[in-house]
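Still learning. Show one?

>
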Amino acid sequence: MNTNSLALILFFLLTGCAHQGVYNIKQLNVKPINKELRRTILQSDSYELQMTPDGMFQRQMVFDVQFKNTSADSLIIDPSQFTYCPVYPKNYVSTDQIHVQCVNPDAALEQMRENKTNLIAAKNPYSLKDKSIGDILTDGLIEGSINLIFGIDTDDENYETWEEKELAWNKEKESELKSIAANIDFLENKALLKTTLPPNKTIGGKILFPIETKASQIQIILPVGNQSDTVCFKQTIDWY
């Protein structure tokens, strides 16, 4: 496995794609439409919802949510079914109607555990440990040929030796294992997972959405039970 292969195993963006410019965000500001409220409270026919913007985690938009089942039947709460429709400023023209899917926490947790297993098992391609003399000579010849073909100067101060590449690969692997551990901890201990909520019971946790950077408002659609409700927030972004 080379350095590029390692990068592919690295931390996903909990659902898949990163929205353009998300890594240049200094601060994400999401607030209820009503300026006087810190959170949105929704009273539906079957449940009560409290929903509070909670900044970002790993470049994803975070909401703290709490559901109380006020019906006589159990309710299935499935964050993977939540979506939002971005509302754009008047001077921005969008060609398509976008629905941004909430991160599926159960699938993300399974993927993170698999990534951890794969990354722990990954062997450093620059390590000489367990390599035969033939393999070492072959690797040396290949690297020497590449340097010759592309005119790479091994005396250049920016040239990385085999040992430096081995050390850099190990550091990258260690960094990504820490990142994966942080995500597993978030998903296991803080995220709202899919659950069946009995009558008169309450459950809470965090949900994550990819950030649509061009949106000035987001309309979050929450299908729960036999109904679907919408809550709205304003969004502004401070950039680096």
